[in-house]
Amino acid sequence: MAHIQLHTYTPDSRTKESRQEAKELGSTGEQIATRYLEDKGYTILERNYHAGKHEVDIITLHEGMIVVVEVKTRTDTQISNPEDAVDHRKRGYIIRVINQYMATHNRSEEVRFDVLSIVYKDHKPDIRHITDAFNILNY
Amino acid sequence: MLIKTYGSAILGVDAVTVTVEVNVTNGVGFNMVGLPDNAVKESLQRISSAFGESGFRVPGKRIIVNLAPADLKKEGTAYDLTIAVGILGANGDIRADELGHYVIMGELGLDGSLRPIKGVLPIAIEARRRQCKGIIVPAANAREAAIVNNLEVYGAESLKQVADFFNGTSAIPQTVVDTRAEFARSLSGYEYDFADVKGQETVKRCLEIAAAGGHNAVMIGPPGSGKTMLAKRMPGILPPLTLSESLETTQIHSVAGLMRKEDSLIAVRPFRSPHHTVSDVALVGGGANPKPGEISLAHNGVLFLDELPEFKRTVLEVLRQPMEERRVTISRAKMTIEYPASFMLIAAMNPCPCGYYNHPTVECTCPAGAVKRYLNKVSGPLMDRIDIHIEVTPVPVSRLNQEGRAESSSAIRERVLAARAIQTERFKGNPGVHCNAQMTSKLTREHCALSDECRSIMEQAMNRLGLSARAYDRILRVSRTIADLEASPDIRPHHLQEAITYRSLDRDSWGQ
Hints:
The complex is a heterodimer.
Chain A: H1 2-9, H2 16-39, E1 43-51, E2 54-62, E3 65-75, H3 88-104, E4 110-121, E5 124-134
Parallel strand pairs in A: 3-4
Antiparallel strand pairs in A: 1-2, 2-3, 4-5
Chain B: E1 2-11, E2 14-25, E3 29-33, H1 38-54, E4 62-68, H2 79-90, E5 102-104, E6 107-108, E7 114-115, H3 120-129, E8 134-138, H4 142-145, E9 152-156, H5 159-167, H6 179-186, H7 201-213, E10 217-220, H8 227-232, H9 243-255, E11 271-272, H10 280-284, E12 285-286, E13 291-292, H11 294-297, E14 302-306, H12 313-325, E15 327-331, E16 336-340, E17 344-349, H13 370-376, H14 380-384, E18 388-391, H15 397-401, H16 409-426, H17 441-447, H18 452-465, H19 469-485, H20 493-501
Parallel strand pairs in B: 3-4, 5-8, 8-9, 10-17, 10-18, 11-14, 14-17
Antiparallel strand pairs in B: 1-2, 2-4, 6-7, 12-13, 15-16
Helix pairs in contact in B: 1-2, 7-16, 7-19, 18-20, 19-20
């Protein structure tokens, strides 16, 4: 049970400055992602769409399909792969948020879940687009 | 779109139709209801991966799966294919017009291949009862399903193949088994023959009597005297299975998942010899998700318990009721399941802890009383159900070296069959009684009337050997069988005398 306590009670160990930095990195990443997707012909429908306390980064329309894009941005000093950061729980949230979006906006398209990973190498973003990163069965 | 596909749940040795309803609607998400257990929930991961490998996309829609009847617990991996095909049909990836005419079951591998499942025979029987057009099962199970006639059986290798089948883009060859021909072909497949056993004529004679009258028997003898070797040859002298008996036994083995890929029928009498460390549940069946036990796997065959006194007391006690009723009933709060368990019990044991009591050349080193104590490990009520006690002595080396073969199993079986025919005639008016061993006390008195001469022999024996009252009926039944083997309508003195010698363990002097 130890690991649960860690999650619940240990406060964010990062300093205020580093949290701020991370936030900025994230929003820069989302801007890069938006531009990238627009270049590829995706229509951006929503950015940072909230439902309850959860949000998804970008909702787009592409070739008659709703494509939900989760953006993960990292500097290459960080170790793990960005796409791994979209874990089982996060995927579950995304599916539920989108389900609500579909209902409130009365949409009937099929949905695809993508992950866009952006890794900064020597101050240049390296973009990887993983289509169909997960689905409603294996999230 | 709402689509229905059909699978089956196994209850006992029968199958119950499970309807898998899949609805794909607007929105996104997945729900499965209808009491799926963990293995069924895990199927989603397999389906997801199998879709990817087979060139299908998991639809980005809201999918609801209902397994009906919703109050029956669904367990195991066999619903993978039923659910996967349902999703494909509901999403329009495959044509759905024919789906409802088939029962579709199988376990999916991550690569979309199909793995064998349990209980295909009862599933196929249920499919025919519902007048389905056909059944689609993993290729490894196809022959097992194909013994059910008036049902098209297709053995598929992969999810892709099943999808192509319904789309009409490629066919799956139909598996056809001629049940009767198959049955006839596999009838003679006994591995062991009495011809291989040198000496031991008296033991063979006892086993012949046991086979002829359906009597349970226990062999008592020192280590290495050939008890196991003899027991293994028992199924070969029993009457051949009838087709309906064969189907019953096959059904149990199918539910237990013990059918081999190349087999479609169990046409030889099963021989089961559980180790003496077996648990109660493993022997009689049961468990949280009930499974047939060894006694049911030995249905219509021989259950061999080697080292009888070494079995746990409770294990032997649970045997008693099924032996009497020839089926075992497993009750749970939610359901009651019955497995057939009509078997012949052949037990083997050492006479004492050291193994050499009554041995012709080696002296028994057991302390006083040890022989009785050892025997007492087996309860009276169980011993009561064993008609024949056989003392087995080792074969001398000179005999082992002798050339030539002993009498073959098929020759012995001829005599057994003749004796059985007499019994079938005798018990025509008594449903449920097929052989002498199954006679009730009333029937015993009716069919085992003794002449005055016989009566006095019996009296003498009871007094001189100190035989117990329970031995009395047993002796009568066995002597009836011995008389039947000679086609003698009356029990003659020498029949009775022979029967009396098969009650060694009842003698007062045993272990003194």
